Amino acid sequence: MAPERESTRERTPSGATAATRPRGPRLDQPRPPRRRLLPEWDPEAFGRLSERIARFLGTGRFIVWMTFVIILWVIWNISAPGGLRFDEYPFIFLTLALSLQASYAAPLILLAQNRQDDRDRVNLEQDRKQNERSIADTEYLTREIAALRMGLGEVATRDWIRSELQDLLKDLDERPDGHGVFPAERSARRDVDDR
Asked: What is the per-residue pLDDT across 60-72, written as a single tens digit (0 to 9) for each?
């Protein structure tokens, strides 16, 4: 019995070289496309088309053309010979066509409005972030200006230096001998005289 087991072991490879073992789908390769029962469409392209239709439905050109078609429809079905009329007086077919047009126009307009709302929401979010950045920049610049003002309070300004120089000139003019001695020299001379 032992030899039979060894022979079965030899037939089934194991380890890294085992290629016959069933594995799940490979993760490094895309899946093959699946067949779908319903047709596929690009939702972005459909949204752009619905916006174009909704924009056209909201124009004066559409109203003029629709009015022209309705007037032509009514005149044709009233004044044309009996065999060429396709919609008699209560104009049931015209009512059906206008109802069908309205039933398609309303969802298309709503879809266009939803897309516009989404764009507005994104724009508002971007504006909010921009405003936050502007406020942060303004606060930073305000702090920097305040720090500069505080720093300038400790710096000798032109007016202060001018007033100090004028005081020194007055001191020099008041001396009777006409020779000016700076205050630092005056205190040094006093120290020498005191000794």
From this structure: 999 999 999 999 9
Print the SS3 string covering the chain.
Answer: CHHHHHHHHHHCCCHHHCCCCCCCCCCCCCCCCCCCCCCCCCHHHHHHHHHHHHHHHCCHHHHHHHHHHHHHHHHHHHHCCCCCCCCCCCCHHHHHHHHHHHHHHHHHHHHHHHHHHHHHHHHHHHHHHHHHHHHHHHHHHHHHHHHHHHHHHCCCCHHHHHHHHHHHHHHHHHCCCCCCCCHHHHHHHHHHHHC
* Exposure of 48 in the CB half-sphere (CA atoms within 13 A): 4
Q: Are 54 and 108 in contact (CB under 8 A)?
A: yes
Give yes or no for a contact between 112 and 51, defined as CB atoms under 8 angstroms apart. Answer: yes
The DSSP H or E segment spanning 38 is none
pTM score, whole prediction: 0.49
pLDDT-derived band at 189 (thresholds 50, 70, 90) equals low
| Distance of alpha carbon 51 from alpha carbon 57, whole angstroms | 10
CA 12 to chain centre: 60
